[in-house]
Each structure stands twice: as structure tokens, then as C-alpha cells.
Please model this.
Amino acid sequence: MFNSKSLKFLEDFMMTSSPSGYEMEAGKVFRSYLSDCCDEVKADVLGNSIAVLNPGAKTRVMLAGHYDEIGFQVVYISEDGLIYFRPNGGIDKLNVPSSEVEILTPSGRIPGVIGKKPIHLLKDAERSKALELTDMWIDIGAESKEEVLKVVSVGDPIAMRSNFRFVGQNRFYSKGVDDKIGAFIIAETMKALSKRKLNVAVYGVGTVQEEVGTRGVETAAFAIDPQIGFALDVGFATDLPDIPKKQLGDVTLGAGPILTRSCDNNIVLGKIMRKVADAKKIPYQESAAHRATGGTDTAKLQMTRAGVATALISIPNRYMHSQVEMCDLRDAEGAVKILTETIASLKGTESFIPGED
Model:
């Protein structure tokens, strides 16, 4: 399992707040963790973090996992000191009422709670309907607009309150696991590869703005121009009541990372990856993607310039896009092992043209 230093990084990383477009906290923690083991660690103008191993090699491998998270943004402050907001990313409005949040300001985090009309005051028809975000507000305990404006401005980003916690033997929950767990796996893979002899250059990228259109990976991939790309993200765990396995497959927390087959995934790279995993006896689960283009960084990475041989590795996730997303450390560890062994096995001369392998 992961050592104490890795677990401390995981906790510190999950406790950061990084709504899409405002990923600075997460980026600093990610880059600091990799600064002592990579040939180069830097940030680009969008906020992507890029760590590099063996940069002189001709063949370039890119790892992409986004560390932005869903959140909100301040839109309006009322005269009575209540703050109205818009979604930033794919918000499930059923999970929002009564959430604790933190408004990210230049002077620090301002705590607040998302309020709504009490259930006692709702009409019968209102009780059975999902409340619109426009009918909610954030209360920071202020008594007037003037008091709010001393600490909060229109446009300030808003994140769910940081809440990382280990539960059970191998699991943890937190807001923002989608997809800080993917970026965590990239960091751990770069640490492991720094101790191996490599025939390829490896670029470990913590990407930004995935939740608002997979924007960060597009610019990072254009700059790096990789021949091979791995995207790390979360996937739906289906080991819960009423989730249709006939549509989404059989995916269990703790049974290994998910290897995907779809139009986004290069057939040759997929074969190499599975062959390595089988030879090393690393457990994994199979998935036929429920949509072939988009949804993760994979599609943008694949379509960079003249095309990239890509593979998506997903970590089973319960309660996606909520404040209590849950993953299993064994799945993350399996993903690190598959990535490390696959990349270390590359000669740099492989052809990834389907049918020529």
C-alpha cells in the first residue's frame, strides 16, 4: 500500500480547494510534491502543472489527470447580506441545499452555508420538486450587504468545505475526489518512474478546467505533442442499489482500476497495458465506455495535432459530483502499478497503428 508520505500528500491534496479556473491551491501542492524527483516541474499560463522525466527522449508519453473540481461563483449580494451564486461545472442541485461552503477570497476562505426556505414553509407541490439554484443563497452570518462586501466580491469562486476522511480499511471520502485522485495517481507514478530506467520521456500533467469543457488538457497536449497519452479519471462504481449494471457494467470498489474500451482508447496501447497487468498479476476491471467521445480528458488528448495513442484508466467512484465522493486506495495503487510497469516497458519504437501490432 501507499507509504505515509504518499498518504499525507493525498490528504493535503484533497484538502485544497480548486474550482475550475481557480486551481492554484491544488497546483502548488502537486508541484511541491514532485519537485524533488523530476527533471523539471512547472506551471503553464492556464494553470496546468507539468512534471517531466527523461525529457531528451524522442518518444513522449503524457499522463493527464485534472485537479479542478465543481463549485460555484458569486453573482449577486443582496441588501440583507445574502450571497447568490451560479454553478461552475456539473452541479447536482439535489445535493446542494444545506451544504457548507468556503468562498475563496484574496484574504482567505470565508465559511458559509447554502440556505433555502425551511421544509415547514414549503407547499406540498414544492416538497416533491428539486429546488433550483436560483432559489438558494449563501449565508456567511453577515447582517448587511456592506458587511459582506468587506470580505467577499462578485466573481469570487466558491468551493464545498474541505472534508477529507479515511473510512474503513482502504477507503476515503472527500469533495473533489473527481479528479484529484487521478492527479494523485500521476504524482505517485512519476515518483515510481523516477527510480526506473526509461526509454521514453514522461510528462505528468495535473490538468485544469476539465469540468467546464476539458480545456486544460487541450493546451498542455498541444505544447507537449505526445505520441502516447494516458488519462486518469474516476468512473462509476456500480456496486450500489439501483445502478443499472446492464448499461454501466459491473464495477466494484477495491477490485482494481477500470481499463476502458471505446473509440477514445487506442487498441494497441490497450493490449500492451493489459498484457503488462496480467504478467504482473495486477487486478483490473473492464469497461465499455457509456459514451465514446468526451466526458474525460481522453478525447481531447487523443485528437491533439495528428492524433495520440490514448488509454483511459478510471478509479471506481461512489457518489460522483457530491461532497462525499468515495474511492478505494487499492484501486489507486493498482493504477500506479499498471502505469509504472507499462511505461517502463516501452522501448520508444512501438507502432500504435491499429492492425500493425
About this structure: Residues 71-160 form a domain with the Elongation Factor Tu (Ef-tu); domain 3 fold (CATH 2.40.30.40).
